[in-house]
Amino acid sequence: MDGPAWRQRLRSLADEVPGLVPVAKGNGYGFGLARLAQEAQRLGVDTMAVGTPAEVPQVREHFDGDIVVLTPWQEDDPHAVELARDPRVVITVSRLTDLEVLANLGQEAGGAKPRVLVEVLTSMRRHGIPAEDLEGASMWTEFVDFRGWTIHLPIHPDPSDGVGEAGHLARLAQQALPGPVWMSHLPAADCVRLAEQLGQPVRLRLGTQLWLGRRSDLKVTATVLDVHPVRRGERAGYRQRPAPGDGWVVVVAGGTANGLGMEAPKPPTSIRQRAIAAATGGLEALGLALSPYTIDGAKRWFLEPPHMQSSLVFLPSKATPPVSGDQVPVEARLTTFTTDRVDLPEE
Ligand SMILES: *Cc1c(COP(=O)(O)O)cnc(C)c1O
After folding, report:
1. CA 345 to chain CA mean position, Å
2. Which of 18, 98, 213, 256 has a CA between 20 and 30 Å from the CA of residue 268?
3. 83 close to 56: Cβ distance less than 8 angstroms
4. Radius of gyration, alpha carbons of the chain
5. What is the pLDDT of residues 185-239, one digit of tens each?
């Protein structure tokens, strides 16, 4: 990857978005959680967010600031209960009944109030307190450390719908209890405008757009491990599939352990489908699946479903074969992909 260009873009987003909250969760957007925590630290932001309680220990030693847990707090999760007492953690609360439980917990712990963001239900209808019940949150502010409202919008096809919904809910929340508003999936300029209108900080959480926002900074490649000539009909692989033509079997790094080729090749179900596939030159007629690897300028077919850490790919004889050690491009969805290595220098 182009580390300097990538970091420069993070820097300019952080400058553009006051109060930016980087989100690091799941597979760490292909980079890993620890690395993203280091990058958040480098940006000098005061807060980052993770998805679940289990992700907090993976970032806390790399990042000095506050850590927000985005998945709403659950009373019956002992880890979440422990985090409610952690002075570096801000939890998300999506039900008034949980605020009551937390208020009691705060008193029990000898005065350390749980630090909470209170979630407003949006048109996503996932988590949160419905608009008409927001007033109820103000009952508990004496017993919990209220850090603001959180509004997680769906990704509206028309961004102005998102702005309208965000503004409406944020104003209702301010009437119930004034405080900062934490937003997701709203354009940065709209957050700045909303902050002015509300007279409260609006903190924008960014995940995909921050880490993966400019794909040209990122290049995913796989190492060619071996190349073997093969004749049409000769068998290869665990499943001893016949080669569909003369060419090469290319053994490439990457497989199911990396989240590649997770859809098993299926033979076409009807004669008609086979005929269409054969007519369009697709090897799905033979029950093969297209791989995400590009070799000599084209996507190539898996000879058989990928294994844990390597894949067998068929390269026809008219192509120029790679040599062992070459890097070939891989199309990877970085939110589900596990990389073996990220080329990002420490400095
Ligand atoms: C995951 C998450 C984000 C980041 O989502 P992206 O689509 O990756 O930017 C933002 N806010 C909340 C509440 C989330 O759960």
Report:
1. 22
2. 256
3. yes
4. 25
5. 888 888 999 999 999 999 999 999 999 999 899 999 999 999 999 999 999 998 8
Supply the residue whose CA is at minimum distance from atom 5 of ligand 1: 207
Write out pLDDT tens, residues 44-74: 999 999 999 999 999 999 999 999 999 999 9
**Separation of alpha carbons 81 and 58, rounded Å:** 18
Q: In which residue ranges of the chain is pLDDT below 70?
A: 109-111, 262-286, 347
pTM for the model stands at 0.85
Nearest atom (ligand 1) to Cα of 209: 9
Task: Give me ligand 1 centre to Cα 212, in Å.
Answer: 13
3-state secondary structure 165-198: HHHHHHHHHHHHCCCCEEEECCCHHHHHHHHHHH
Cα(first)–Cα(last) distance of the chain, in Å?
A: 14
- Decide: 295 in ligand 1 pocket, CB within 6 A: no
Find, among 277, 240, 260, 233, the residue nearest to 331 by Cα: 260
Nearest alpha carbon to residue 157 among 165, 146, 149, 148: 165
- The answer to whether residues 70 and 50 touch, using CB atoms and an 8 Å cutoff, is yes
Output the pLDDT for position 142.
87
| Ligand 1 atom with least separation from CA of 25 | 1
Please work out whether the CB of residue 23 comes within 6 Å of at least one atom of ligand 1: yes
